[in-house]
Amino acid sequence: MSARPDDTPAADAEAAHADPGNVDPADANPTERSARVQTGAEQDPPRDQAVIRVEQELGRLFARIRVSWREAAAIVHPDLQPLGYQMLTAIESGRATTAGEIGKRLQTDKSAVSRLVRQLEELGLVESIPDAGDRRARRLVATPLAQERVAQARSAYESRIADRLRRWTAADLEHFAELLGDLG
Q1: Alpha carbons 120 and 117: distance in angstroms, whole number
Q2: pTM
Q3: Which of 67, 72, 85, 175 has the fewest CB atoms lying closer than 10 Å?
Q4: pLDDT at position 137, please?
Q5: Greater model confidence, 87 or 1
Q6: Packing angle between helix 144-165 and helix 82-93, nearest 10 degrees?
Q7: Whether the Cβ atoms of residue 71 and residue 14 lie closer than 8 Å to each other
Q8: Distance (Å) of CA 139 to CA 1, 26, 148, 157, 168
Q9: Which residues contact 163 (CB under 8 A, 6 or more apart)?
Q10: What average pLDDT does the segment 159-171 reach?
Q11: Which helix (H) or strand (E) segment is 140 a member of?
């Protein structure tokens, strides 16, 4: 079995950096942080501790996701950056097919989108074609090469996450999905 993204020193470093509990030394005392977090509601130390733990675990999860994006980008092409991978998957899935849509979806400025679209075109991963509905606009489409490489990258990621999630019961997975839906 290959190393998981969260088992790398980079993941540990990113997790420490992304971990909200490690951002400010003043936050080292969870009770003090809980008191600052309270917004006039009655204090509930066990709940406050749980909230802090969830924040920390989300930070670790986000760091792992960033590592996974970096690994997936490298599978697609060694020169591709993680944001380029995110753009490519948005284009490949049809969720965002114009530079404007990509900028909105990824909350990225136009210059970064333009630079990365150019790179994706140069790597043979996307093509820009006229929009059938508006001749002034251009649509971005993933090339067959991009579709193949994205499928490889997704396969590696999905097998890792599936291995972890298969350890859970169906009820736990349903409950987790519900909680994530409520959070989002």
Answers
A1: 5
A2: 0.68
A3: 175
A4: 85
A5: 87
A6: 100
A7: no
A8: 40, 49, 20, 28, 41
A9: none
A10: 91
A11: strand 138-142
Note the CATH number of domain 78-184.
1.10.10.10
Please give the single-letter amino acid code of residue 148.
E
- Phi then psi for residue 126, to 5 deg, are -135, 155
Q: How far apart are CA 70 and CA 74, in angstroms?
A: 6
Place of tokens 């400010």: 24
Residue tagged 């994006």 (tokens): 69
Q: Which among 143, 118, 140 has a CA at the least distance from the CA of 129? A: 140
Determine the length of the chain.
Answer: 184
Place of tokens 């591709």: 80
Contact 129, 173 (CB under 8 A): no
Neighbours of 145 (CB within 10 A): 14
105 vs 32, more confident: 105
**3-state DSSP assignment of residue 106:** helix
Strand partners, 140: 128
